Every structure is written in C-alpha cells, then in structure tokens.
Amino acid sequence: MNCCLLLPFMLGIPLLWPFLKAKESSKTEEVKPPRGSHLRVKRGWMWNHFFVPEEMNKTRHHIGQLKSDIDNGNNSFQYKLLGAGAGSIFVIDERTGDIYAVQKLDREERSLYTLRAQVTDISTGKAVEPESEFVIRVSDINDNEPQFLHEPYEAIVPEMSPEGTFVIQVTASDADDPSSGNHARLLYSLLQGQPYFSIEPTTGVIRISSQMDRELQDEYWVIIQAKDMIGLPGALSGTTSVLIKLSDVNDNKPVFKESLYRMTVSESAPTGTSIGKIKAYDNDIGENAEMDYSIEEDDSLTFDIITNNENQEGIVILKKRMDFERQSQYRIRARVQNRRVDEQLMKYHTEASTTLIKVQVEDADEPPVFLRPYYIFEIFEGRPHGSVVGMVSATDPDQRKSPIWYSITRSRVFRIDDNGTIVTTNPLDRETSTWHNLSITATEEYNVQQISAVPVYVQVLNINDHAPEFSEYYETYVCENAGSGQIIQTISAVDRDESIEDHHFYFNLSVEDSKNSSFTIIDNQEPGLALKKCLSSTYPS
Questions:
Q1: What is the helix (H) or strand (E) element at residue 383, kind and residue range?
Q2: Gap between the Cα atoms of 224 and 207, Å rounded
Q3: pLDDT, tens digit, for every residue of 80-109?
Q4: Residues 6 or more apart in contact with residue 347 via CB below 8 angstroms
Q5: Which runs of E-coded beta strand occur in 325-431?
Q6: Which of 117, 112, 202, 207 shows the shortest CA–CA distance to 167?
Q7: Would the pTM of this model clear 0.70, i.e. be above it?
Q8: Which residue, among 191, 167, 188, 187, has the nearest Cα to 243 in the 3D structure?
Q9: Are 352 and 387 in contact (CB under 8 A)?
Q10: How many CB atoms lie within 10 A of CB 384?
C-alpha cells in the first residue's frame, strides 16, 4: 500500500475522535439517592453527553435532548434550563426537553458550559426529578491560523559560517485545541531564503545551508511559513519574515589599487616632512579593516610611513635630509597589512599587498657652501701691506653654479679678493695681537639673498724684532769696605718676542765701563753684579 495515501487517513482519525467518543458515550444518567436513605428509588434522567461544534452558522442548532424516564410523552411535564448561557445561548423545548444553541460559539473564547436541568409536573408545579447538572462542550474546528510570536525577527550571524550553523529559532502558536486532532500541530517551511538557509520542520530552527560572503551581500530576508494540521489538506498557515544580517570577519586583506605613486619633495624639506599619501582598500569593515603601512624596500633609509588611524591612509615622511645634487630620485616599496588577524583566518592574508613609490627631489636655491667648516692661516708679523694670508673657497651647490662674492666683516687689517684670497692691509705686530678672528661671507651673484659665512682664524707668527730689556731699573748700593767678588746685585732681562724655548740672555758691561770698572758681571743664568776690587768710595751701578 502506498504510505503517502495511508498517512492522511491515519492522521485524520484524531480529527473525528471527539465525535466518536460522543457517540460511544451516549447513555442514561441515573440520579441515585444518598447511600443509606430509605426513600424509594426514583427513576433517573436520560441524556447524551452534549457537544456543539464552534462557529456553527445556524440560528438554531440542535444539541441533544434532556428526558426523564418517567416521561411517557403525554406532555404532562415541563423542562427548564438554568445556569450561565441558559435562555441566551442555549434554549430548551419545555415539552420535549430538546436543547438548541441559538448563537454561534467560539471554543477559543469558552470551551464548555455548565448548566442545570429541572422537570416539573405541569398540573402540580412540583419537581418530579431532582435538579441535575450537566455540561455542554464546544468542540474544536480548525478555524485559527498559526500566529508567530515575538515578531519582528532579526538575527546576526558571522559571514562564511559553515553549513549547519544555528541562526535563530522562530515559534508560532495556534489557538485551536491541541488535543483535537492535528489542529494545533505545526510544520515549518521556508518560502524564501534558499539555498543559503534551511529550517527544521518541527522546531522552527533556522540554520545555514551554504556559506555566504558579506562583501557580496550583507543581509537576507527569509520568509517562514507555519502550517497547522501537519500540512494536510485544509490546513491553515501563517508567515513571518526574518531579517538575517551577516557580521564581518577578517577574510579580506587590504590591497593597493594603485601600483605606482609619484611624489615630489624639495631638497630643503626638514626631517618629518610629509611628502605624500598612499591608500589601500579593505572590503572588511570596523576593526577588521584597520591596517598598518610600512617600508619594505628603501636602501637609502630616507623615508618612513605612518598610518592615519582616522582614514586608514599611509603618510610618507622624510626620515633624513636630502641633497638634490647627490641624489635626485628615489624608488621605495611600501606594504600594507591588517593590524589584527585571527589565526584561523591567516589563510586569507598569506601575501601582503605592496606598491611602488617614486620620489622626485626638487632642486632648492641653497646658499653657497665653503669647502671647509673653518680656516686657520699663519703669517709672520711685520710682513708688508698686501701680503697674502690664505685663500677661502665657496661654491653654489645648485645646478646653475652662480659666481660667488666674498667679503670680510669688520676688519681693518685684512681684505679679501674676488677669488677668496685674504691679504693684509697693514703690517701685523704679534706683540699687539697674536690671533685675528675673521668672518668671511660668500654671496651668490644671481641671488644676493643666498649668503653663507665661515670663521677664519689668523695666527701672527713671531719674528725677532725686539731687543731684550731689563726687567726693572736697578739702583745698587755697596759698602766701601766690601770685599772683592762679593755679589751686590742680581739683574734679569725680558724679551717681548716669542720663543719656543725659554729666552737666554748674555750680559756684559758696556765698553766704556769695562775698562776702568770696579765691577764685573757673572752670567750664571741668573746674572749677578760683583765687586772686582775693594772700594774706598760708593759708586752707583
């Protein structure tokens, strides 16, 4: 037998169950007196269990009949209905005991009614049966479609999640009686969202069925249907929409769109100067798009790159000064990579993106440059006017090579020629000034604003142009009876000329004094005046 044909039949049996039970339960209710009572046993009521289907459109729907077993059908008894709904929802034929529903009922509002029945003798007005209580049940029909709870639905799941990843669970509710067949048994299905999503039919759990890339599509609308009666014919359904957003993972590396950047910078730019910007692009967002730039190739070690964290640009800066005349072009290579990459995503970042940067150095109008940082010259004192002291030299470092003018700042004894030769304008005296400190300036002829200066130190060398001099004026006294050879005075001399070693002086008496002098000079590095013979009188030395 075809199982597909058997399934609806088997599933349909529960739908008829309340009515089958009602049929089987048809019986006579007997009102029994209390145990131990000596009253005679009365006859009892006879009725069926009462059921009324909800949503009946009839204005008068027969439910069943109340009847006493003593009623012989001669219309001598009167039946009454008491309790909630009596007379408004339910009415009874006073002669026959037939009960009718006169209003449409909704089981979801009220599923049962408890009523009381009375039967009286018309002629006496007395009850012939004890008052009895009975129940009318409202039987369910499948009149409520499933309703989804907690709408709207929204979920977030990481992109590239594997198949089977849990996304969200949706839940619908059916107001029909869950014990009445399959009226409230739901099955979930996907109306929109394939092939990326699937749903478990009985739980409403949505799972990923195919990997998705946020950079291609970052959100999906999925439509879910819930059907009652486990999807059998005649089932009611409800739908809901689920917005599923893909969160970003770092599955993209930053990439330069430009393979070559050209930049220019003046050779006069100081260190730290920004000379240009480079930009890489990352399809990821947020922290996954944060990147760092670095120099991969720069033999000159002249450049560096810093990252602007606000706009993720790389700023190329000077690390040291440049000289156009020494090198006018540079080629460097920069690389970029993400700042943070999870280990399981390293497969997407195996090779960093690079770009080439060509830097053109522009020639700046620089001041003249002296060949030396300072100059030291020597010249003997006493040289005549116009004697050459030395030569300084400066050049224009720029390509145009401007001629240079030289000048001396505040000097009365030196001047400088156009070719940088320093000459004297007056004789020099070492004893007056041993060193002369000069400042030589070089000015470009093509741009007089470009000026450089260099210190020049001139040492005046000594010549022997000064005679020795006595250190002081000597006036010596000696006793008349002083003995021969007695030292009466020590004398010394000085020389204003410079000597590498200590000065050595030779002392002697003048020619006219040496002939008849009573004194003699002993030169023993510290010359002394001594008596040559005894004196009878005192002579000035």
A1: none
A2: 13
A3: 999 989 989 999 998 888 999 998 888 888
A4: none
A5: 329-338, 353-362, 369-370, 375-380, 388-391, 394-395, 404-408, 414-416, 421-424
A6: 207
A7: no
A8: 167
A9: no
A10: 8
